[in-house]
Write a structure and sequence with these properties.
This protein is α/β, with parallel strands linked by helices and about 400 residues long. It is built from 11 helices and 14 strands.
Length: about 400
């Protein structure tokens, strides 16, 4: 597949509605680092909010704002040209103090040349880079070490809260199927999915948390999820409470998938940003009232692709592309704290460029039953010793 190129777009506030925009390109084949390109971008936030019910127009307007500066546009075009043989990881990096920028629907950003939606492109892996106050190190796990938690909150009184029914058995089966091949703990099947049970399950060490529940965002400061109480009925849990409980754990989950509506809405105070700040390395959340059809269309291919190489942003790009005909295909939003976007790694030999030949020679020695030392005999030992050294 090759190493992808990286293009980071970082924005910093200058004055009301005006931001310094910095683009930095990393070419995987280049031996040197190129200087970043800077420009100014002006954003009319009232106008953007007025276009939220018109996704196509919204995307066009946001694209014009981001690529208005000719130098910025030039670097982007050069990046797409240079990376024509590679994939391009496009990261939107927003300073922690620029909360209003998190409210923009970056997943509607389009290519300024061909006007195609970037979020559903297989060639561009779009994500938001999240700065966090959490200083805990993120352990690297191999695929064989992965562990997942499936948590489904299906309250029995959903009709009283005017909520759609969550079909418990179907959601658990869908989660198990998507996460097949790794150990899974399920919450919500035999006992209600309460906050305490969820936290207890996460304390056991969870790489992937797949949370299916209803979500709500009644005001800019009150993102909440609908879990259950001990009786199985609805219990509203404030996003900050959930994030604080996770932040208190010795090791936060590496990735949380929030299959709930409005988990990334009003992003300056969204549940997704709260969880990222609490130490979760990657959060996949939903903007607005995403349809269940789109959720069902995104989740299975996302996990399937994720288990191929552990590249989270690549997996989501392909999954979103599969539902590109849906009007809400842009709603899944990925928030990353991992610079390389890797959920897991494949153990392998590392070192100089001649490592593969050395490895082949070593394997050949093992197959031949040879020993690479002087005890194999003067002449024969010399040959084996050289072979095993990759010479």
């Amino acid at each position: 597949m090759g190493v992808p190129g990286e293009l980071e777009i970082r924005l910093r506030h200058v004055k009301d509605g005006t931001y310094e925009e910095e683009l930095r390109l990393v070419d995987p084949e280049a031996a040197t680092m190129s200087a970043p390109v800077r420009g100014l971008v002006k954003i009319d936030f009232p106008k953007m909010r007025s276009l939220e019910l018109k996704p196509d127009v919204y995307g066009d307007e946001l694209t014009q704002c981001v690529f208005a500066d000719k130098d910025v546009l030039g670097l982007y075009i050069r990046a797409r040209t240079v990376m024509s043989k590679h994939k391009l990881r496009l990261s939107i990096a927003i300073e922690p103090s620029e909360h209003e920028l998190n409210d923009l629907r970056w997943e509607l950003l389009r290519d300024p040349v061909d006007k195609k939606l970037l979020a559903t492109s297989d060639d561009v892996w779009l994500s938001r880079f999240m700065f966090s106050k959490d200083w805990r190190s993120v352990p690297r796990h191999s695929r064989t070490q992965l562990r997942a938690v499936i948590a489904v909150a299906a309250p029995t009184d959903y009709a009283e809260w005017q909520l759609a029914e969550i079909k418990l058995d179907d959601e658990i089966a869908r989660g198990r199927n998507a996460l097949s091949g790794i150990p899974v703990e399920v919450l919500g099947d035999t006992e209600p999915c309460t906050l305490d049970r969820l936290i207890k399950a996460l304390r056991g060490g969870a790489d992937i948390v797949y949370l299916v529940c209803h979500g709500i965002h009644r005001s800019p400061s009150a993102p909440s999820v609908y879990l259950q109480n001990e009786s199985g009925q609805t219990e509203v849990v404030h996003g900050k409470v959930l994030a604080d409980r996770i932040g208190d754990m010795a090791e936060a989950p590496r990735m949380m998938v929030l299959a709930s509506c409005e988990s990334a809405t009003r992003l300056e105070y969204s549940l997704a940003t709260m969880l990222a700040d609490a130490g979760v390395s990657a959060v996949l959340a939903m903007q607005g009232k995403i349809s269940m059809a789109t959720v069902k269309g995104v989740m299975p291919p996302f996990f399937h692709q994720l288990f191929i190489d552990g590249q989270i942003d690549r997996a989501l790009a392909i999954a979103r592309g599969g539902v590109r005909a849906h009007s809400d295909a842009w709603m899944p939003a990925l928030f990353l704290r991992l610079k390389n976007g890797q959920l897991w790694y494949e153990p392998r030999l590392t070192g100089s460029n001649n490592a593969p030949p050395q490895w082949k020679a070593l394997c050949q020695c093992v197959r031949n039953g040879a020993r690479a030392d002087h005890r194999a005999g003067p002449r024969r030992g010399h040959v084996r010793r050289n072979a095993c050294a990759g010479k």
